[in-house]
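Key result, reporting period 2: structure in, sequence out.
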């Protein structure tokens, strides 16, 4: 029931920390995986590594933030690969000033980040869902965040040169709401739409931040990338065939208390 053999699954933001872990998890479960990203040079290197491990993986350049073109590009990909049965929205595009404090965010920057992150997820999901409807089968997974559900504890950032950007919560909250909208809209067509909401993922953060963050997590640590990837693989598999409109918390228990 966890096997993905016979499935063709596309992953946006496939070259990032979580993206690569998702590609590997899906591949290990037997899926044909299409890695979608914008860095073709890196894509070639990552593809070579996965092919050396005998995974059924390909790489395609796709800029999900090119909103006017993304619909046609997804149609081209779907036709090229004989029908995409699973779509993982995982890209994390953002402006160069990403990470500034709320009081320093410029209106134009806010608008750009909503387009780059929230709107790209929504439009991509719309298009692939409409193509899936024609086949009466398909699954979409959106990578959201706990900060689309609960507020950040800003005490973990005190004394540190970092914060959770305000648009991040707005974007991830929007993704969660739209996940449920799509699940309702396409449910009778046999299309499942779910999201995962990861907490912090270990990625060489400072010791000071990590210590403060871990103190809030029931399991006492940040996630490994693969600990986000395997829940994604589960949700897109036949084992989750009766699950749709769900937001799966993958946060080590942070949001439970």
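The corresponding designed sequence is given below.
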């Amino acid at each position: 029931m966890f096997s993905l053999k016979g499935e063709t699954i596309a992953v946006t933001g496939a070259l990032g920390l979580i993206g690569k872990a998702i590609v590997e998890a899906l591949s290990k479960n037997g899926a044909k995986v299409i890695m979608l990203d914008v860095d073709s040079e890196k894509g070639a290197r990552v593809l070579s590594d996965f092919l050396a491990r005998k995974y059924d993986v390909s790489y395609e350049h796709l800029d999900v933030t090119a909103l006017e073109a993304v619909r046609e590009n997804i149609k081209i990909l779907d036709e090229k690969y004989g029908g995409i049965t699973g779509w993982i929205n995982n890209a994390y595009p953002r402006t160069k000033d990403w990470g500034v404090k709320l009081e320093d965010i410029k209106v134009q920057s806010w608008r750009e980040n909503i387009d780059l992150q929230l709107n790209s997820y929504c439009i991509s999901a719309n298009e692939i869902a409409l193509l899936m409807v024609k086949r009466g089968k398909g699954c979409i997974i959106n990578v959201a965040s706990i900060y689309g559900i609960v507020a950040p504890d800003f005490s973990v950032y005190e004394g540190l040169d970092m914060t959770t950007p305000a648009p991040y919560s707005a974007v991830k909250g929007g993704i969660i709401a739209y996940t449920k909208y799509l699940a309702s809209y396409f449910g009778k067509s046999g299309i499942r739409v779910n999201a995962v909401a990861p907490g912090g993922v270990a990625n060489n953060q400072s010791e000071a931040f990590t210590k403060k963050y871990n103190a809030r997590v029931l399991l006492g640590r940040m996630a490994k990338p693969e600990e986000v990837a395997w829940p994604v693989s589960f949700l897109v598999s036949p084992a989750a065939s009766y699950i749709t409109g769900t937001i799966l918390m993958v946060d080590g228990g942070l949001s439970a208390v």
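The radius of gyration is 18 Å. The longest strand covers residues 191-198. This case is discussed further under Risks and Mitigation.
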